[in-house]
Amino acid sequence: MMAGLSDSIRSGDGVAGVLARVSRSFTGLVGLLIVAAIIAIAALAPFIAPHDPDAIDVLNRFSGPSARHWLGSDHLGRDLASRLMHGATVAMAVALAAISAGLTIGTALGILAAYLPTRWERFILIIFDVILSFPSLILALAIVAVFGPSTVMVVLIVAITLIPQFGRVARAQVLTLKSAPFLEAERILGASSLRIVTSHVLPNIVGPLLVLASMDVPVVITIEAGLSFLGLGVRPPQSSWGTLIQDGYQYLSDSWIPVLVSSVALVLATLGFTLFGEALRDAADPRLNRER
Amino acid sequence: MNIGAVMGGGAALAEAEIAATPALLALEDVGLVYNGRVRALDGIDLAIRRGEIVGLVGESGSGKTTLCKALMGLERVTAGRISLGGQAIDALIDRDALAFRRKAQMLLQDAVASLSPRMRIGRLLEEPLRIHGLDLGEGRARILALLQRLGLPPNTLDKFPHQISGGQARRVAILRALVLNPDIIVADEPTAGLDVSVQGDLLNLMLDLQAEFGLTYLMVSHNLNVVRRVTGRTVVMYLGQIVEEAPTRALFAAPAHPYSAALLSTNPSVDPARRRARTVLKGEIPSVVNPPSGCRFHTRCPQAVARCAREAPALREAGGGRRVRCHFPLATGLAQPPDAA
């Protein structure tokens, strides 16, 4: 049980073993529970939401929490609980899509950078630096100004800003692995470069990249909410935590409840994923584990 | 069982019979220069015949591993020609790299590290089949047969590389090479890091396999006892050059090159008849970037004279199948091997 994520993948105790290690610390357990709840809500929102999130009921606008509206209703009388649940779906979908895209493209570029001749390596690294040199919000404003706001744009922007960090980590990992004897042994057996990278390099660098990806989830959630809050992301009437906070903010003088519940949802989500990501990182680092 | 119990490999096949066959692997004036100035290999001439076991010894930095990599086509030589079965390996690799890989295989020094850590042994053993597009069913049957032949328990297939012992990892590496049915196996330190008892078993196994599959071995080793017991012929390298090549028994009985003599004198022996006065060389092996003038060994040679610093000796025939690169080879005729039997 002392082994890290890499060892557990190696010895095949799989996802269950990793999660068991994550939940051994209190904060890890809290993070895991919040993450599990949010993912469940996001996946099941259409089935468990008590109301249609877009159903307008102007007579009951700004109703406080009640049996009918658990968390109250917004300025158009839409059910806040249902909108929050659907907002979770949007947040999770954006996070999943953007992080998978950033992870895939970044890892591919990072591996290429490590294997290509210096000229091309430099070219790729410069692209990474260029992307990193843009504050992501400025980049988002620029892209939205050209293409207009939409959920797809949010995914695209976030994916682009995530590419360099995955790329850099992947490249560093490959560089330390490149001269490993088992890769040379595969070459001696006649394995092609593609085969060596996909079957032998990738499985050995994916652990740290996945930990990094899990740490990015809260960041992506806040970026999505932030862009949507500014009207640069998810378009109304679709509910996102960002648009919910924006709507609540517009009518703050009428009721403080919409802002409060939407903000708490956002805070809980970022907190849960942060705690989970940190616990996962600790579980993946055998040195930290041994001290316990 | 210890190494002493391993039978001499040179005797496995009649030496005369080997000498008559054409060279399986031939190196002609092979040189390898990195970055235009690092002369890792220089003027290597060597022929290995089918069925031979040739030992390669020398200090760290003498070019042993580079030579192995050049033989495997992992490093392209910058001068001379390496040929396998009469054909230049560069051409063989360019034409059909996989076919070349099926002929020549190499066992890396660190057997555990040479197995991909996230794959089970069973999957690792199937790697050569998949890479070469061989029939998986047939190949698996062969793997199972070899598994038994090499004395590996069947449950080894389900384990990961870090779950097996060093000796088992060696056997897995050997098995993986044998799956391709190669002609020649280059073994870099096949016994490094193993218990003496495991070393003996492994060497016996390698000798049995050699006879069974008609293999040819080039064995690189720091362990002179291994070389002495297993190989029929020994090549001594120093700073990227061959300094002496001789039948193993003759070399160990009476080395002709002062460097071989110094190297062999450091080898511990329990037999007092074999003990020699220990020659301790001064200093480190010089750099191949800027090798010493004349004879490359003159800076550390106990009997160097002025001529050695000026004039580079050639690798000359010295009789009895021996070649030596020295202006003043040590007398070998006087000292008859005490253990010639």
What does this structure look like?
The complex is a heterodimer of chains A (292) and B (341). Chain A is mainly alpha-helical. Chain A is built from 12 helices and no strands. Chain A has helices spanning 5-11, 14-22, 26-48, 80-115, 118-133, 136-147, 151-177, 181-189, 193-229, 241-250, 257-284, 286-290. The radius of gyration of chain A is 22 Å and the shape is elongated. Chain B is an alpha/beta fold and 341 residues long. Chain B has 2 domains: 3-238, 3-Layer(aba) Sandwich (Rossmann fold); 255-324, no CATH class. In chain B, the strands form 2 sheets. In chain B, strands 6-7-8-3-9-10-12-11 form an 8-stranded mixed sheet, with helices on both faces. A 4-stranded antiparallel sheet of chain B has the order 2-1-4-5. In chain B, a hairpin with a 2-residue loop joins strand 11 (316-319) and strand 12 (322-324). The longest helix of chain B is centred in the middle third of the chain and has 18 residues, at 196-213.
Secondary-structure blueprint of this entry?
The complex is a heterodimer of chains A (292) and B (341).
Chain A: H1 5-11, H2 14-22, H3 26-48, H4 80-115, H5 118-133, H6 136-147, H7 151-177, H8 181-189, H9 193-229, H10 241-250, H11 257-284, H12 286-290
Chain B: H1 15-20, E1 23-34, E2 38-49, E3 53-57, H2 64-71, E4 79-84, E5 87-88, H3 89-103, E6 104-107, H4 121-131, H5 136-149, H6 166-179, E7 184-188, H7 196-213, E8 216-220, H8 224-230, E9 233-238, E10 241-247, H9 248-253, H10 258-265, H11 306-310, E11 316-319, E12 322-324
Parallel strand pairs in B: 3-8, 3-9, 6-7, 7-8
Antiparallel strand pairs in B: 1-2, 1-4, 4-5, 9-10, 10-12, 11-12
Helix pairs in contact in B: 4-5, 4-6, 5-6
